[in-house]
Structures are given as structure tokens and as C-alpha cells.
Amino acid sequence: MNMRHSRRRLGQAGNNILESALVLVPTLAMIVGIVDVAFGVFTHTTLQHAVREGTRYAVTYSVKTGMGHDASIKSVVQQNAMGFLASETALSKVYVRYYDPVTFTEQTGTGSNAPGNIVEISVEGLTRNWIASGLLGRLAPMNFYIRSSDRMEGLPTGTALPTR
After folding, report:
1. Dihedral of CA 84/88/90/93: which sign?
2. Helix (H, G, I), strand (E, B), or coil: what is residue 110?
């Protein structure tokens, strides 16, 4: 009788381990998926904040020492991106464009950042791989396309238009 009880207990222990594995694996997969999506949303929100700060900086015509207007704007975007734009490759995905407010055509060259024009700061084509790609096989990477724009203010009194 004692032998039967010990065998039954061993069988129950094996069932408990199997049931735990059957519950834990899908639960962990769901947790990783939730964290993955949440990190994607966090990345998007962080980059949106960074381009918005770049736009705010652009409309004031401020420039950093030794930099042109566009390089200064990209620097501000990079500083506010919490490391997502730390590499030169990622920084090359930041664009500064100016548009005529009447025709909405892109303005290039000297004077394109004149007062009244529209400045658009964007991060285009930045990719991030899913954490779950290793668990679920090959998943298409997440692509980010983020924009912010505003109208250029008037130049501060006694200030020349900064070079792009």
C-alpha cells in the first residue's frame, strides 16, 4: 500500500511539471509580445518628442557654435532621442526641409529657412527589430516615419539669417 501511494505521488508530480510548462510557455510568449509592442510605442513616442523639440529649436533660428542651422537642428533632435539616434547611420535618417507656405513646394539652398516658410523635421525609415523575432522566427522590422512642422518665426532684431 505504501508503494502505491509513492507511485501515485510521482505521477502527480510529473503531471504538475507538464501542466506548468503548458501554461508558462504561452504566458511568457504573451509577456514578451506585450513588452515588445510597448517598447515600439515607447520608441515612437520618444522620436515624436525629439522631432517636436527639433522643430521648436528650428523656428527660433538658434545655432550651436561651429554648426549651421540644419546641423544644429539635427543635434537637438539627437539629444532628445534618448539614444535611438546615437549612431551616424541613425542620424542620417533625420531630415530638415523647408516649404513655401503658399505653394507647399520644397525650398532648397540659401534663404530657404527664411521667416514665414514652413520647417519640417522628420525621422524617416528608422527600423527596429522585434525582440520576439528570435522566438517566433523572422518578423518584418518595425519602421518609423515621424514628422513635425511649424512656421518659421521672424528673425530676432539685428540677427542675420543663419546658413543652413
Report:
1. positive
2. coil
Q: How far apart are CA 164 and CA 46, in angstroms?
A: 26
- Which residue(s) pair with 123 in the sheet? 94, 146
DSSP letters for 71-123 = HHHHHHHHHTTTTTT-SHHHHTTEEEEEE-TTT-PEE-STTTT-TT-EEEEEE
The pTM score is: 0.82
Q: Name the H helices within 62-154.
A: 69-79, 88-91, 133-136
> pLDDT tens, 83-137?
999 998 999 999 999 999 999 999 999 899 999 999 999 999 999 888 876 666 6
Residues in the chain: 164
Q: Phi/psi class of residue 125: alpha, beta or left (left: φ > 0; alpha: ψ in -120 to 50)? A: left
Q: 114 Cβ partners below 8 Å, 6+ apart?
A: 152, 161
CA distance 59 to 55: 6
| CA 153 vs CA 10, 77, 95, 108, 162: distances in Å | 78, 19, 20, 18, 13
The answer to whether 51 and 20 are in contact (CB under 8 A) is no
CA dihedral sign, ordered 94, 85, 45, 29: positive
